[in-house]
Amino acid sequence: MDKNAVRRQILVRVLADLIMLSSVTLFALLPQMIFRHWSIATMLLMWLPLAGILSLAGPVVFYAMGFYTKGRSYNGKFKALVIVHATTVLFVVAGLLLYFIRLRPSFPRSSFLLAWTGCAGLLLAARMWAHLWRNLVMEEQGQQLSVAKEHDSVLLIGGAGYIGSALLPKLLDRGYHVRLLDCFLYGEEPIQPVLQHPNLSIHRGDFRNVDTVVAAMRDMKSVIHLGGLVGDPACALDEELTMQINLIATRMIAQVAKGNNISRFVFASSCSVYGASDLILNERSALNPVSLYARSKIASENVLLAMRDGGFEPVILRFGTIYGLSGRTRFDLVVNLLAAKALVDKVITVFGKDQWRPFLHVHDAGRAVLAALDARSENVEPVIFNVGCDGQNYTLGQVGELIQRMAQGSALVCTEDNVDRRNYRVEFRRIRESLGFEPVWTLEAGIQQVLDAISSGKVRNYQDPKYSNVKFLSEPDAREALPVMEDWVAKFMKLPHHAPVNA
Questions:
Q1: 3-state secondary structure of 298
Q2: What secondary structure does DSSP assign to 181-229, as a single string?
Q3: d(Cα 47, Cα 37) in Å, to the nearest integer?
Q4: Which residues lie below 8 Å from residue 326, measured CB to CB, with a gap of 6+?
Q5: Peptide bond into 483 cis (omega under 30)
Q6: How far apart, in Å, do the first and last CA atoms of the chain sit?
Q7: Residue pLDDT, tens place only, 222-264
Q8: CA distances from 418 to 294, 346, 349 (A)
């Protein structure tokens, strides 16, 4: 929705609120008029000062409390609480002003309380009615919505990877027609259970190739871009390859999507962009990247933000540190790795025990992508979302202690040698309030999932290169399958070889 349309909507809602406030305060005086036999002139003299104060202060208070900017993303009881709170604040302000002004005749206290309860009730009814009506319509049209979703098509780039293999079955279960673009560097095994699904089509290829992307994008309605080199060690192997895959290809894919009139573009970023900080960080916090991987994500975010307009809606998801099992499980991530070491090696070695990380299960990461894909345009207006929950911010030392308790007989060793400089504790209020997203997995449940997979023999050798991005990409066969495209950046995109750093 364009900004002018948004402003018009806000103006209409402000006028509606002012009419409600003025009307309720006038009707609140009716009992006094009836029982005390006041004249209409007397009632108007009492009403006008309060109506004027409410008309001036009301829009200011309501705007400050998010009535016109965030209200539609508030849900249920929280929305009701905000409405009552805002109305109370407004009437407290009005009451204080009336007290100090001391006009005669004064507005009766009983009528003032009646006006407050009436305004709160009417504002609550007006906004909650819309919420209840939407729920009723959605319930009645549930089957129609399900059928409609069967015709929604989404291009999933990098869908055979760690997060993608957890997301893909969820998209298919939701009724989406999915076209999967992947070079299958790790084989087809991660998505084997859904390979024959009737709503899945496979487009094998390298997403750095513009012809491949153009062909895969045809007739799609939305794009989910999960493809890329992930993790600091893997990206450090080859800077030019990292920039080609993580930055330049992202810009090209977004340009093709925009050229195909695709509106929703969900992009996988990372909380690694925050780097090192002792503060609790949100989406507006300064970025402080300490790795090539983080810088490539920041540069990609900037590219997408610059392309954003009324017809192109990028949604940037900054995932926390992922853990848990998916079709293509990784053991180069801290929770999975430490859990495996505790069970197999009986030793948990933690580097930098006081460093904070926000943790997120891989299946919750998939659920967050679905939430971003399905959300209404006004709910993704902030564009960037941290993905996780406040309760899963842990220090690495706390993670080690938790795993030690769950893996009986393991020893915990903490050292400050070879310390990763990253340290970030993240707030997740925006995705909770705007998209209604809350993780369903806990860190304990994810650790137990990994322990069970190893003890049952589902994972036989956690040190196998296929479980580690950096180990796998260091092998000659992998480097041959994923070569640097010589002069590709300069020739096709005319961009510098190094990502811009925008902290």
A1: helix
A2: EE--TT-SGGGGGGTT-TTEEEEES-TT-HHHHHHHHTT-SEEEE--S-
A3: 16
A4: 162, 163, 165, 166, 190, 362, 363
A5: no
A6: 29
A7: 999 999 989 888 888 888 888 999 999 999 999 999 999 999 9
A8: 19, 21, 12
